[in-house]
Design goal:
single chain; alpha/beta; Arc Repressor Mutant, subunit A; 7-stranded parallel beta sheet; 23 helices; 30 strands; globular; ATP binding; plant defense; ATP-binding; P-loop_NTPase
């Protein structure tokens, strides 16, 4: 089946090259004849390729001919791309106000024109000769004399990438890594490891058997091949049952979007044959269903199903792979190209969807079209199409429900790899590259500490991604030679300054940087830039001038406002296509509302996340504040989902800033603001964070917007974070009707360092939907949780009293208490039968014993005791906690003894026991291993540390 897949790569390269040749390139005056002749032979080659019969495609000689054709066409594509680059360079230098910084001429000199003409004639001659060479192969009417290839190897065509030093264990090239993993896992003499090896190769067999005999390791091998099971098995194998036919048909219909299709006699006959082919394999059912999506016409769908049933081969060794190849063969050309490109990533790699789409664009797979859809929109459509065909899996979504990451099944990856060039599929070491290898590379994902000098030979790269965790002083100068580069990602490499040579990469569409102090001055020369991502240091004071000239820019992660000409916030006004996330800092440099309005943020409908940031007072150059007027001018678009306002210096916040569509809102460090804005009527708000607003002393009805009370306030709010409100004294919210929709969706309530607050409003205390309450450093607060019927997690730090109504929560699962432990009334613990996690931290260190009520918590699985300086012996009643699985003792500096051996042996489910910084405690009179016998648990589960670390600080689940 592979012979039907690989030709599309050559055809797609031909299409792109012809499209470039057809464009008007003003620089090629005098080359019209050469360009026309080249285009003619490109079109003839494409027509010939499309007319090749599928039977002839199986001939190895034809494959070699098409392989050679792709080399020639790729060379033509690179030449035409270089012509376009020179034309663009000339235009940029002509219009640039700083063109004298460059070392080359702004016009194409006669020698360069002559060189281009010679290259074009040479490529045309090669194309002509290659076309003539097709006659003996039977491609233009003569019978082929070549012998058919009897092998089953998949021919691979499209050149893509090399991936260096990628750490994925478990595939064919990583035998040594697997053996190292097996041996390392056997190092603990108290623990006999159980390893599951998903795939097995011949060279592993003898090694694994030797290791099993030596170390006593248990290994489970999973395989699809009976031969492997027979060779490796020491006991009878367990064979997974096939998926029942009804389930297979249901899965197939769901993938084909055909759940509503009624069964007909013809469809029933097709169903029977199709299920025989699917053979109970879920992956086959999903992928086949995606390949024949139902579009509303039953007759047409039945015909398509009949066709695909006929095309599915008889069972063979690579039966599943053949079916998957058949499904991919039915993909449209563009989607097939995009799908094949996904195999540049290692198996089991989590791929970033946004980066992948940008790489597709950089490779030229996606071309601009007329209409409103951008190339990114088209790429999103191609991705969703492939996802609907079940070619992607394990998708990860962000908080807004958008897909951010995905994976490919190993077999699907194999099919994608079958379309790629064998020249580029293997892992390469740059020290072993030769000139031919380097010139063929279009994508390089480089995982190394430094950029090797041989990368300079990869002059036709379209995509370069460098992953290096160390600090880079600078990019090497040869980066400027990569004139075909469209995608450059060095975001994992921190550097202080970006070299100016990068601004000569005029074709660059995506530039991803890490933390950087200064961007290059002439960044505006990158006129095709669409995505610019970076992080600025705190002392970054301005952006490169005239950023507004980058009119194609869609992603701009940061903009630092300045007051010099060309650096003002008005530069954003021309960037009409901005979308996604944008952070604006140094807003104190914006002098007026009119200047802020010039940014035209309200017109940027595709922006989803905005951050407005002023500098802290100590860094401000002037003492006057016009922050209110500036924020009024920075009116966000109506579709904005997330807004963060930091260090705002006004007394009040403009109401119009908080648009209806907001989902996330953060007000941080607005220390001069005296009143909270009206937020209760934001119907879509789900997360609200308010911190460091020192001037707010009371909260009343203006916060909720009670005057328009018809739908309630904060109807969708799920998380409310209220921190460092050090002067807040009064919080009013009286609710007469407890059945109202006020805070009707709230799940998490967090208060921290509200030292003067004495009481929460009953509108919050009566919130029945809350399941997590976190209160810390609010010593004067009295909390009542009686009406919080769904409460399951309670964390309190520094309260004078335990919350009222605690005994009314039999479903409470987790409690963490930090404070004056001995002063609390623990009688409510008698009514908490479902409590499974308890963390106690004695803030004063005065407690001399554990609360006796704890012995009634018989469902407890995790118990952590910290800073109990006065306790010397743990109580005997600890034996009653028979469900206990984890016990942590931390910084109990006077603790000398555990309960008796008999009591500890009652804890039969104990799996993890940690002793941290308890210097006087010996386990059963001995340390570590002997003490483990005393505890009746394996030694490797017992850990004694004399460090001062605390497991409580690592408990992310609470």
């Amino acid at each position: 089946m592979a012979e039907f897949l690989w030709t599309f790569a050559v055809e797609e390269t031909l299409k792109r090259t012809v499209n470039v040749a057809a464009q008007k390139i003003s620089l090629v005056w005098g080359l019209e004849d050469e360009l026309s002749n080249l285009s003619k032979w490109l079109l003839d080659a494409g027509a010939l390729l499309r007319d090749i019969d599928r039977e002839i495609l199986r001939k190895e000689s034809v494959k070699r001919w098409a392989d050679g054709l792709e080399d020639i066409v790729s060379e033509a594509e690179d030449l035409l791309d270089e012509l376009a680059y020179e034309d663009l360079r000339r235009k940029v230098e002509t219009s640039s106000r700083v063109c004298n910084n460059f070392k080359f001429s702004s016009v194409l000199n006669p020698l360069v024109r002559h060189d281009m003409a010679c290259k074009m004639k040479k490529i045309t001659k090669m194309l002509k000769q290659h076309y003539r060479n097709s006659a003996p192969l039977g491609l233009v009417g003569k019978e082929s004399m070549e012998k058919e290839d009897g092998g089953n190897n998949l021919r691979q065509i499209r050149e893509t990438t090399s991936i260096l030093n990628f750490d994925v264990v478990g595939r064919e090239t990583e035998v040594l890594d697997i053996l190292r993993l097996v041996i390392d896992s056997s190092s603990n003499e108290y623990e006999l490891p159980l390893l599951i090896v998903p795939i097995l190769w011949e060279e592993l067999e003898d090694c694994l058997k030797e290791i099993v005999g030596k170390f006593g390791i248990t290994i489970i091998v999973t395989t699809r091949l009976d031969e492997v099971a027979n060779i490796m098995g020491t006991v009878s194998g367990y064979r997974l049952e096939k998926l029942p036919e009804d389930h297979c048909w249901s899965l197939f219909k769901r993938s084909a979007n055909a759940n509503g299709v009624k069964m007909t006699p013809k469809l029933e006959a097709i169903r029977i044959k199709l299920l025989q082919k699917i053979d109970g394999i879920p992956l086959v059912a999903k992928v086949l269903g995606g390949a024949v999506e139902f579009e509303g016409d039953l007759d047409r769908w039945e015909t398509t199903l009949e066709s695909i049933v006929r095309e599915i081969p008889m069972k063979q060794k690579s039966y599943v792979l053949s079916i998957l190849q058949l499904s991919v063969d039915r993909l449209p050309f563009v989607e097939k190209q995009c799908f094949a490109y996904c195999s540049i990533f290692p198996k089991d790699c989590e791929v970033v969807k946004e980066n992948l789409i940008r790489m597709w664009i950089a490779q030229g797979f996606i071309q601009p079209t007329e209409g409103e859809n951008t190339m990114e929109d088209l790429g999103e459509g191609h991705f969703n199409f492939l996802l609907s065909r079940s070619l992607f899996q394990d998708v990860v979504k962000d908080k807004y429900g958008r897909i951010t990451h995905f994976k490919m099944h190993d077999l699907i990856h194999d099919v994608a790899l079958a379309i790629l060039s064998t020249r580029q599929k293997s892992v390469l070491d740059p020290t072993h590259w030769n000139g031919k290898t380097s010139r063929k590379l279009r994508t390089l994902l480089y995982n190394n500490q430094e950029i090797h000098h041989k990368v300079a030979d990869c002059v036709f790269l379209r995509v370069l991604e460098v992953n290096s965790l160390h600090m880079m002083n600078n990019l090497p100068d040869f980066i400027a030679k990569l004139k075909h580069l469209r995608y450059l990602d060095i975001s994992s490499c921190s550097m202080w300054v970006m070299p100016h040579s990068v601004t000569t990469l005029f074709n660059l569409q995506t530039l991803k940087l890490g933390s950087i102090e200064n961007l290059p001055m002439n960044l505006r020369n990158l006129v095709r830039l669409r995505h610019l991502e970076f992080h600025v240091y705190y002392n970054t004071r301005k952006m490169p001038s005239h950023m507004g000239e980058l009119i194609h820019l869609q992603i701009l992660s940061w903009f630092v406002a300045g007051f010099e000409e060309g650096c003002k916030i008005e530069e954003l006004g021309n960037l009409k296509n901005l979308k996604g996330q944008l952070q604006l800092s140094n807003l104190e440099q914006v002098r007026s509302k009119e200047e802020a309005l010039a940014a035209k943020l309200v017109n940027k409908k595709n922006l989803r996340e905005l951050t407005f940031e002023w500098s802290i007072d100590i860094l401000r150059e002037c003492s006057s504040y016009n922050d209110f007027e500036v924020l009024e001018g920075l009116q966000p678009p109506k579709n904005l989902s997330s807004l963060k306002i930091t260090n705002f210096g006004g007394k009040f916040l403009p109401a119009a800033t908080f648009v209806e569509n907001l989902v996330f809102l953060c007000l941080y460090g607005c220390t001069k603001c005296e009143r909270l804005p009206m937020l209760g009527q934001l119907a879509n708000l789900q997360e609200l964070s308010i911190c460091f607003m020192d001037s707010v002393r009371s909260i009343g009805s203006e916060f909720y917007g009670i005057d328009s009370n018809r739908r309630g306030y904060f109807p969708k709010l799920k998380k409310f974070d209220f921190c460092w409100m050090c002067n807040l004294e009064q919080w009013e919210l009286e609710v007469a009707n407890h059945e109202s929709n006020h805070f009707g969706s709230l799940q998490t309530l967090k208060l921290d360092r509200c030292g003067k607050l004495t009481k929460l409003p009953n509108g919050l205390e009566c919130c029945k939907s809350v399941h997590e309450v976190i209160i810390s450093n609010c010593p004067n607060l009295t909390l009542n949780v009686e009406e919080m019927h769904n409460l399951s997690v309670l964390l309190i730090d520094g309260l004078k009293f335990l919350p009222k109504g605690l005994a009314l929560h039999p479903n409470l699962k987790t409690i963490m208490i930090k404070g004056c432990i001995e002063d609390y009334d623990y009688s409510p613990f008698l009514n908490l039968p479902s409590l499974t996690k308890l963390y106690l931290n004695d803030g004063l260190g005065n407690a001399t014993q554990l609360p006796k009520q704890l012995q009634h918590l018989t469902a407890l699985k995790i118990l952590a005791i910290e800073n109990f300086y006065g306790i010397e012996v743990l109580p005997e009643w600890l034996r009653k906690l028979t469900c206990l699985e984890t016990l942590d003792l931390v910084r109990c500096k006077n603790l000398k003894r555990l309960p008796s051996r008999g009591a500890m042996r009652c804890l039969t489910k104990l799996k993890d026991f940690k002793v941290i910084a308890c210097p006087l405690l010996l386990l059963g009179g001995q340390a570590d291993q002997e003490g483990a016998k005393y505890l009746h648990i394996p030694a490797y589960l017992c850990h004694v540390y004399q460090s001062r670390g605390s497991p409580l600080s690592k408990t992310s689940s609470i």
